[in-house]
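fyi for ur records
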Amino acid sequence: MTLRSFHLAAWPLLALAIAPAYGAPAALATECVTDPAALNSTAAEPYSGYEPTGYKGSLERNEPWFQAVQPLTQAEGSQRFVFKRLPKADRTEYESIEPVSLGGKSTGFAAYRQGCGVLMDGNGRSLGVAPFTSVEEDYSDANAPKGTSRLVLRRSSASAADSVGYVMFKHGKKIAASRRLYATQFSAHEVKPAGSLPAYLRVVAASDNAIGLLNLHTLQETIPPTWLGIGALADTSAVKNGKPRQTFLTALGPDGLHLFTEDGTPATLPRFDRVSMIYDWIPAAPGQKEPSPAILEIVDAQARECRLYSTRMEPLLPQAQTMQTSGYCVTKNSDQSAFFAYSRDGMTQIYRKSVQKGAPVMTRTASDISGDLVFAFKTGVSILKDTHAASAPYRIVNAQGQELPGGPYTQFTNLGCGMVRLKQDSEWKSVSERGELSSKLTYPFSC
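which gave:
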């Protein structure tokens, strides 16, 4: 049985002030507000139109730049740059104009003046993108849609922390923009282990402890940045083309963890603060080629309850199982067993595990058997304890809940590795998987 579990822990990072909204009507600036103290207020080395793309890094002309931009030499020898296709009366002088990919073979230009950048086309017209301090292309996702360019727009100032927004172009046309600016440094709670997020999802923050996920292909927020921490849980029971069968997203709130599908759809689940993906819990049937489906186990540590779900978010059992005194769920005790038994409120339930149409199914074979579960064999045979019986509280039942002859028993001991004993009168006896007793005592060597 393989577990990939999540639990909560504090993880202090760098703090950052709240970033303003980006892309919302009230926050989308349409003109540059100059900030001489900001980065790029004066370009030390303005873009010259040449790039080291030739043989052995030799400089070559950037033709789109020379077609769109005209350098102007000032009286003191410095240079300014204008868009040559604009009428002279409409030209603005910039300290630097730099080419930017707009997807495919389309080129735009970042024009900087007094610490503020604007994104323009080759005719010197605004592309409707909020002003920025610097811009760079984001190459982090190798599977980005073809013909697209995703730009990271950074805003810096002497009086506020840095923040970034995102905009996407396809063949020169703006197709998406993030709805707000995001913090570049922030504090978050860790959801451990973090798991591997799909490459197209990026953790973003509106502020400290306000964390979410941004879809880099659409620039829509898969999970809005309102959570204390973000994690991921992948179902790797069947990996195809190097990708897990599916990935779940987790978000930490003040009331515990919340589970989402990969597209951000929230799962309707009872409160929980731990979640695990359990593999190989259902044994493979004869002739079964595909691995058995994984199941989800959620744990409410406050209520000390465990619940089982399919990866389709369907409950496998009608009620929660009480957590063991060890702090673990009883789930792990039935690894690779065809049966699963648990007790709640002094009554024991026994289920048979199976796979139907690719989904896990639990079929009850015995219900409301009086007594607490002490030990369950893989055959469905179980040892129960009647807390109301003072002298001989232990008995053995089969998978249908029928008591096997020979009991009751006065004491029970678990030697480990599936070896248990029951005592009757003054004699200890070993118990087999079929519930048979033997006076020949066996000892576990290793397991």
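The radius of gyration is 32 Å. thats all i got for now
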